[in-house]
Amino acid sequence: MVAHMKTTIEIADALLERARKAAQTEGTTLRSLVEEGLRSTLERRETRSGYVWPDLSVDGRGVDPEVEEGGWSRLRDLAYEGRGG
Length: 85
Prior knowledge:
Elements: H1 13-26, H2 30-47, H3 65-68, H4 71-80
Helix pairs in contact: 1-2
């Protein structure tokens, strides 16, 4: 047996009118249409995986020894080297 709970929600007038028309066109109830939409949305959100960064490594040799111990200031100097910076 499936339990049902009554609740009240506020829906924008235009959206509610579209939903009522869609339910009527499809020969279903507004309740069924709302439940279908909620199920679909919740399923999509529950199965959504987080973003996975692609492997952007270039040659796998690690940090260049020239900048390994230099910190951000050394990286900045190298980035602007020969560019008037």
